[in-house]
Amino acid sequence: MITADNWTPDQPIVALHDVHKSFGENEVLKGIDLEVMKGEVICIIGPSGSGKSTLIRTINGLTPVTRGSVKVEGQEVHDPDLDKLALRRKVGIVFQQYNLFPHKTVLQNVMMAPVLVLRENKDEVRERARSLLAKVQLNGKEEAYPAELSGGQQQRVAIARSLCMRPDVMLFDEVTAALDPETVKEVLVAIKQLAGEGMTCVLVTHEMGFAREISDRVYFTDAGRIVESGPPAQIFETPKDPRTQEFLSKVL
Amino acid sequence: MTDFTLNRLTWRAPLLTAAICVASTVAALAQQTTEDPVSALGTLVIWIPFILKGFWLNFVMSVLAMAFATVTGVLLGFMQISPNAVIRMPAKLVTHLFRNSPWLVILFAIMFLVPFQITLPGGDKILIPDWVKATVGFALPVMANISEILRGAVMSIPSGQWESAESLAFSRRQTLIYIILPQCVRRMIPPWMNWYALLTLMTPMAAILGVNEALGNTQAAMEAAGARPEFLIPFYLFLMTLFFIFIYPLSIYTRRLERRFAAGS
């Protein structure tokens, strides 16, 4: 049994075991097992309504599970005694709708949580925020308000905001689904760069080409279950399950 | 909350009022007979300081009632959004009780329920003036409405704001203070100003209970000057104009803010 006390980096950084989630009568997750090693990039693909977003939200505790275990660095996420702050600083998440704070500037958006929640030194945080914004190609936009930016720019601010908490794992929940086609690429480039630097990433995505290019492993989900998983070449070229074959024939 | 904003507010309205004023003055002058030493208008001029003194009390009551209503209303509003039912349910009860009762009934209830004097533990007696009781009576319905305005504003913030704050490790309290409320204030200012205007226009109800505010003083002045029928139009027109001059710029400013906020969102 891996617990927070005996967890070592060679063990899965994220481990889901037999995760069930119901919304009322509707069972959305029907027993999910999934493991992510440090530095791995995992993509979860599958038809709409197959529970992908619910699955990724259980990893940082945004959606409580009905049954099963979700562990991050050996720490049970759904333990009622869990120090949520400790979990949230380890796991960053970027949403489909960016969810930037509209009354704050770009720089304030990125700086807020480390300064107010982690009580870090403001000057150090500002330094880090500026370099993160530069990394996602947003130099010069520090003083802009979210409403003045394009969708792709807002999404890159959201990525920088999450990274400023210095997480160990990044979750991306369909982050390009709400974007104009011409801005999708700039967001994917930012994620790819991050993955290239060794950040552990879990993505829910409809960008099949991107999933294939970036992932170490791909999980195909359907109707609340993981139907099959494996290296991208195997899933995309020689899918075994008929449901995977049918899905891929529709989207590719 | 736009229901309470007058439609098509323009500067034509005050011009119309002025015209009516002038017309009534002319009518009053025409009615003047040789046996009356002082005209109706002349009488009004003599009594204006007395009426203005009453109006000052309307102003004081409206400002104090609004301050009281804002503090208690915001508090109640916070209680209404509490996840704890023991805090939430009483706040909901109070809010809905005072929101859905006639103002005059609340005013009477406060007037007759609150004693006219209280005895301090030391034995000293403090008189509670009627205008103070009336102020509380006006504040209660406004408090309930401000409570609803706050609750509504918090509810109108997209759930994504709560989610992203939560995933950045903000506590519920920090999320409210740093993320939700700053976005609410903007949305709350126009309805808040509307309620201030309404409250001010309700303050003459205190006259029914014997408070010497503008309406009470106007009536007293007409009575003292001989209660001639030709007093009615100039005296009441003057009183209406007084409130109009005070409230109308506020209405215009509120409308402008509403438009600006609508364009900004």
Could you describe the 3D structure shown?
The complex is a heterodimer of chains A (252) and B (265). Chain A has helices at residues 52-59, 84-90, 106-116, 122-135, 151-163, 181-196, 208-214, 232-237, 242-251, and strands at residues 14-23, 26-36, 41-45, 67-72, 75-76, 91-94, 169-173, 200-204, 217-222, 225-230. Chain A has 252 residues and is of the alpha/beta class. In chain A, the strands form two sheets. In chain A, strands 6-7-8-3-9-10 form a six-stranded mixed β-sheet, sandwiched between helices. A four-stranded antiparallel β-sheet of chain A has the order 2-1-4-5, covered by helices on one side. In chain A, a hairpin with a 2-residue loop joins strand 9 and strand 10 (225-230). In chain A, helix 3 crosses helix 4. Chain A starts with 13 loop residues before the first strand and ends with a helix. The mean pLDDT of chain A is 92. Chain B is mainly α and 265 residues long. Chain B is 75% helix and 2% strand. Chain B is built from nine helices and two strands. Chain B has a two-stranded antiparallel ribbon with strand order 1-2. In chain B, 31% of the residues are buried. The interface between A and B is medium-sized, with 25 and 16 residues.
Defining key terms:
heterodimer; A: 252 residues; alpha/beta; six-stranded mixed beta sheet; four-stranded antiparallel beta sheet; 37% helix; B: 265 residues; mainly alpha; two-stranded antiparallel ribbon; 9 helices; 2% strand; flat; disordered N terminus; MetI-like_sf (chain B); transport (chain B); cell membrane (chain B)
Count of helical regions of chain B: 9
**Average pLDDT reading of chain A:** 92
Question: What's the end-to-end separation of chain B, in Å?
Answer: 17 Å
Low-confidence stretches of chain B: 1-7
The arrangement of helices and strands of chain A along the chain is EEEHEEHEHHHEHEHEEHH
Q: Say how many strands of chain B there are.
A: 2
Biggest sheet, spatial arrangement of strands of chain A: 6-7-8-3-9-10
The helix content of chain A, as a percent range, equals 25-40%
Question: What do the pLDDT scores of chain B average to?
Answer: 86
For the CA atoms, what is the radius of gyration of chain B? 23 Å
Main β-sheet description of chain B: 2 strands, antiparallel
| Tally of DSSP β-strands of chain A | 10
**Could you give a short account of the major beta sheet of chain A?**
6 strands, mixed
> What order do the helices and strands of chain B follow?
HHHHEEHHHHH
- Structural class by helix and strand composition of chain B: mainly alpha
Helix content of chain B: over 70%
Question: How much strand of chain A?
Answer: 15-25%
Strand order of the largest sheet of chain B: 1-2
> What's the assembly state of these chains?
heterodimer
